[in-house]
């Protein structure tokens, strides 16, 4: 008999633990201030949204429309009028021809990328694209190539990765590039509208223009994961594509509902033909139980809240919080003057509610803040590139100015502690005059 499998797993876990990379499930402490979750609009705990959701469930029960489960996949017994009506509503809200629901953003991306690109096609993807896209690409028959994060044109100053334009130029050059240049093979370009670890926005207009210039025959298909922009970017939270007026120039969008929307699930926005194709070929849709009515009702309730206009006050408050947080953290750095290894932030104003607090001691900072009643999480390699460990701070419409300032005071106290510890270490390490003569 070979080594018992649990022994193999235990060894692998132990090795990961020694590397400081062991993952564990944790529970937030009761009463903690949330600076961690992706619920940017705080809709999941919004009293008006909760009341509207419960009323929708009660009404569905009275009408005989309520079912705790769907009973099967959508191709068998799980399809409902409620699901199809919601898809039409979602498509109309985002200015898309059609929409197709998936149980999660992960399943939407794996389903889309595994079956849409064909043999001979190429997928160009931003190096920081989500893990779900990577899993979908691995199942695809297309070749895949990364490009430097948010780099559209010119020198990336990175010998490992090219810009998007350089990658497209290589694809369309020489004899091998004739298939792409003539439009006989396709190029899919995978980007996110807002990147979840750094909180930065994609230069989406430049990306679309670059693709159209390099592939004028229309065989360049941009796919945008709008997970972290849904609900708060653009008019009524329609997302970055709609905000920039690029609906007709982006081939497909993935909107997820587990973040600012405060519920769960996702939808792929696309053409009616692509929707039919995904119903036939997207395995993550075909071979899974369809969303039950409670999930559909949650999504519809969140969309009605966006459409009703009440969200504007939340968005305005969120914008003020983003600016104030950056101002307080910048002032902290000016006072303490920590090394970049100890603590730093991005210099420019935040582009999203996601504010990374960079430090080589991310676990220490996160634990210090958690012990003082603030829920934040350390994000370390390999989830982020080596040397960019951080505590990921997420702001929410439900947070207050006072909570932000108290959190920043905790961060400053930790930075001061690190500064003092570092000074003491240097003094201890420096030889005395007497010992230096020996």
Please, what is the average pLDDT?
93
Number of domains: 2
**Strand line-up in the sheet with most strands:** 2-8-7-6-5-3-4
| Computed structural class | alpha/beta
Terminal CA distance reads 62 Å
Beta-sheet strand percentage? Answer: 5-15%
What's the number of helices? Answer: 16
Q: What share of residues is helical?
A: 40-55%
Main sheet characteristics: 7 strands, mixed
CATH topology call of the largest domain = Aspartate Aminotransferase, domain 2
User: Which second-level CATH architecture of the largest domain applies?
Assistant: 3-Layer(aba) Sandwich
| Outline | globular
InterPro entries: Aminotrans_II_pyridoxalP_BS, Aminotransferase_I/II_large, AON_synthase_class-II, PyrdxlP-dep_Trfase, PyrdxlP-dep_Trfase_major, PyrdxlP-dep_Trfase_small
Family: Belongs to the class-II pyridoxal-phosphate-dependent aminotransferase family. BioF subfamily.
Organism: Purpureocillium lilacinum (Paecilomyces lilacinus)
Domain Aminotransferase class I/classII large: 33-410
């Amino acid at each position: 008999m070979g080594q018992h499998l649990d022994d193999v797993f235990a060894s692998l876990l132990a090795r990961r633990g020694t590397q400081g990379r062991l993952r564990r499930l944790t529970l937030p402490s009761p009463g903690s201030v949330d600076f961690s979750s992706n619920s940017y609009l705080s809709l999941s705990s919004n009293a008006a949204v909760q009341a509207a959701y419960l009323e929708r469930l009660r009404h569905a029960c009275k009408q005989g429309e309520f079912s705790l489960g769907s009973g099967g996949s959508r191709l068998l017994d799980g399809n409902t009028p409620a699901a199809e009506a919601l898809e039409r509503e979602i498509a109309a809200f985002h200015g898309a021809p059609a929409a197709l629901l998936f149980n999660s953003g992960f399943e939407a991306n794996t389903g889309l990328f595994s079956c849409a690109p064909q043999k001979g096609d190429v997928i160009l993807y931003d190096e920081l694209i989500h893990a779900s896209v990577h899993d979908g690409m691995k199942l695809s028959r297309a070749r895949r190539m990364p490009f430097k994060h948010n780099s559209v044109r010119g020198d990336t100053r990175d010998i490992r990765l090219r810009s998007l334009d350089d990658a497209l130029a290589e694809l369309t050059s020489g004899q091998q590039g004739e298939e792409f240049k003539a439009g006989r093979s396709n190029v899919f370009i995978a980007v996110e509208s807002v990147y979840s670890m750094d909180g930065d926005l994609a230069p989406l207009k430049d990306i679309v223009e670059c693709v159209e210039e390099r592939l004028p025959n229309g065989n360049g298909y941009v796919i945008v994961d709008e997970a972290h922009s849904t609900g708060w970017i653009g008019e009524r939270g329609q997302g970055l594509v709609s905000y920039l007026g690029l609906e007709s120039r982006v081939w497909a969008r993935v909107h997820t509902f587990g973040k600012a929307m405060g519920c769960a699930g996702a939808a792929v926005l696309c053409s009616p033909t692509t929707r039919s194709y995904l119903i036939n070929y997207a395995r993550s849709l075909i071979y899974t139980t369809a969303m039950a009515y409670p999930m559909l009702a949650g999504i519809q309730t969140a969309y009605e809240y966006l459409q009703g206009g009440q969200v504007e006050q939340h968005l305005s408050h969120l914008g003020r919080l983003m600016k104030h947080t950056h101002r307080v953290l910048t002032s902290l750095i000016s006072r303490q003057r920590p090394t970049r290894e100890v603590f730093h932030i991005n210099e420019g104003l935040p582009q999203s509610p996601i504010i990374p607090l960079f430090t080589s001691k991310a676990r220490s900072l996160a634990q210090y803040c958690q012990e003082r009643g603030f829920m934040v999480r350390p994000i370390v390699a390999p989830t982020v590139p080596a040397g960019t460990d951080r505590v990921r701070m997420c702001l929410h419409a439900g947070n207050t100015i006072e909570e932000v300032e108290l959190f920043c005071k905790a961060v400053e106290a930790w930075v001061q502690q690190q500064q003092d510890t570092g000074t003491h270490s240097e003094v201890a390490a420096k030889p005395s005059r007497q010992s230096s003569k020996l």
